[in-house]
Known about the structure:
Blueprint (H helix, E strand, L loop, with lengths): L4 H64 L4 H11 L7 E4 L3 E7 L2 E15 L1 H14 L4 E9 L1 H4 L10 E13 L6
Antiparallel strand pairs: 1-3, 2-3, 3-5, 4-5
Amino acid sequence: MSIGARPIGLILFVIVAVGASAVLFGQSVRANQACAEDLARFDALQLAATEVRALRTTAERLRRHQESSAPRLATASSEVLAAAGLPTATLASLSPESAATERIEKAFLTRTRATLTLSPITLPQFGRFLDVWRQRLPGWTVARVDLEPRRETAASTPGGGDLPLRAVIAVESTKWDAKGSVK
């Protein structure tokens, strides 16, 4: 080999090495960007998995709470009357609980409705009853209230006194079964 051939070989080696380094550097930048994007996606997936676990835990706790704290409405209504300081005879009638189930995608929504009639009851007593109802039976929502004076005593009540009323209360309870089975 001649002396002039060595510098050309060295120059070619340097050119090839620099070219390969440039290609490798470009690939390493792309690989680094892809790694950063993958890490961001992984973090988002971990956060989503944590949120799904929290939602499942909350749904299970809600289901257990609904099952454990769902006393029969007649017994619960009597307890609410007693806690409000009203005689049990104030509960004039209680319609049977009726339930309607609606399928929403892969789950079921069950609405249970009932109607209570309280008579005779004054407006302040009715307010106490509703206050105790909200505290003791948060799963039963008051959906409608009809108040009317009692016909047989309205004419005989002296002015300035609390008028005895007849209160008809429609209540509703909603339960969500995300597992997709009706109980």
